[in-house]
Amino acid sequence: MLKMEGVETIDLTQIDAFAPNHISLPIVLTIAGSDSSGGAGIEADLKTITAHGCYGTTCINALTAQNTTRVYDLFEIPYEFLIKILDANFSDLKIDSIKTGMLSENGIQALKDTLIKFNYKNFLVVDPVIVSTSGFDLSKSENLKLMIDCLFKYSTLITPNYEEAREILSIVDSDYYNKKFAKKSNDDINTKEINKIQDIQEMCIKITESSKAKNILIKGGHIPWVINNDEKNYITDILYQSESKKFVIFKSLFVDSKATHGTGCTLSSSIASNLARGLTLIDSVGNSINYVHSGIVHADNSIGKGYGPLNHCYQYQFDFNGENNKLMKFDKFNDEVMISHPFEKGGFLKYLLNHPLISEKWETYTHHKFIKRMGSLKLKLSNFKIYLKQDYSYLLNYAKIHSLALSVAPDLMCIEREVEILSTIINEINQHKLKLFKIGYSEDELDNIKLNDACLNYNSYLMNIAKNGGDWLEINMALAPCLHGYRVAALYGKELFDKNFPNDDDIEHKNDQEDEYKLKKQLYKQWLYDYAEDWYEQACLDGENLLNTHVFEKDENKINVNRLNRLVKIFADVIQLEVDFWNEIVSGSDEQDDDN
């Protein structure tokens, strides 16, 4: 008989999670288009329905070829096949709630005929989608009229955004629409717009009176209300229940984000799911607005190059690293694999910098064109101002991460080190403030800095490590590329600066730009020299010594292979985040780049 080695049996029968549990899942049907990028349409609907504890069924009435930047093409499913899909679902399943998204003419007719055939009386949420987030026309104007005629009278709720509500008004009450919104002449480019909440309330009344829709929610994400001239402060979603003539105004903070792909699909799916679960209409809408808002705030802004998706499952995400891990560990073999340290004592940082996953990224980071342009004074002052503001905000978060590291410090030496680091960071923050004050920023402006995508991603990554179970070593591993990389980059930039400008008067000035060149030289030189000074070198040495000491904390000769791989990955990930941060600072610059 063949001898089998390395066989392990894992018994799953005794795990509580697999014990029988008698539950009832409300069934929600979505009839909409498919989004190949996964952020909107049927794909977003199913994620949302599942996140709300419901069972999702589908009827895809159109296929799209799209990503976060645009919709490339659309293919409609024939009426006959849609009827087969709906018949199959309705004849077998008890549909508690239906939501519609992008509907073709075939989809509208098939759904209407099915509602009548099966005498459907449960919830129907109609989202009258016209245009995608990226600007593609998803529905013809005649389709909207057909939707109004065929579906609105069966709906529990319709959920147009402001632009869609205007289009509906132009169909159901053209006299009011022309009076309220139409141009005075072909030369009149200033189309009348709303300027107060009462205008939207009036739109709600007109639409329900003329379309037979019982309830309407006009979404306000496209029209944030402005309190101060230059600040978009909040949005309002207005629910109107025609039978009770009751308005409910939901006020939310405006989130200036590109993670808005599929927000309309997600909101209507959430409302349909909440209704299926037994919530009242007002509770369904309020909870759904909060769900979408939270999904935008917790979105991964690195997905896609255009309008990215929100995070549909933010409240259920697993903690892969922490002690409160919801995932079970089965791979005991790799957890127990110990290897000899692939570096000598005191050589951990050197090992990292020469690692194949890190070495090229490290070179790109520490010799970045941001540094090259600073050393040659080719970096635009406007770019440096952006950098200082973003880095100032980053340092505030950096201090918070070190505070979290202090709370999990394994010994007195680490506690003392964290206190020293926090003191250094506060000094660095104050230096940034002085530079920002020098170039004209006020204290109030510093308190209201809007983070760019790269800085948001960087901060989110660090906070995720610190708050989701990362221990002291992992947190400091995530902070190490900034500490050590800035010194290497500054030394390189200082060398370039000293070579290009050996004397204080070696800059050729253009008459109208002399003051700016002087300011650039002063600011860039100070930045490069600050991080090249002895105090910063000592901070790097202290940080390196501490990492070297604690990477050997459990065994002086061996290290767990998973532990080592994770530390390497964290270090590599953060280097890329540093590169991305500087990339965004110099992106769009029209300065000539000298990378040689």
UniProtKB/TrEMBL annotation:
InterPro entries: Haem_Oase-like_multi-hlx, HMP/HMP-P_kinase_dom, PM/HMP-P_kinase-1, Ribokinase-like, Thiaminase-2/PQQC. It holds the Pfam family TENA_THI-4. GO terms for biological process: thiamine biosynthetic process. CDD domains: HMPP_kinase, TenA_C_ScTHI20-like. GO terms for molecular function: hydroxymethylpyrimidine kinase activity; phosphomethylpyrimidine kinase activity. Residues 35-311 form the Pyridoxamine kinase/Phosphomethylpyrimidine kinase domain. It comes from the Eukaryota. GO terms for cellular component: cytosol. Residues 358-584 form the Thiaminase-2/PQQC domain. SUPFAM superfamilies: Heme oxygenase-like, Ribokinase-like. This is Phosphomethylpyrimidine kinase. The lineage of its organism: Eukaryota, Fungi, Dikarya, Ascomycota, Saccharomycotina.
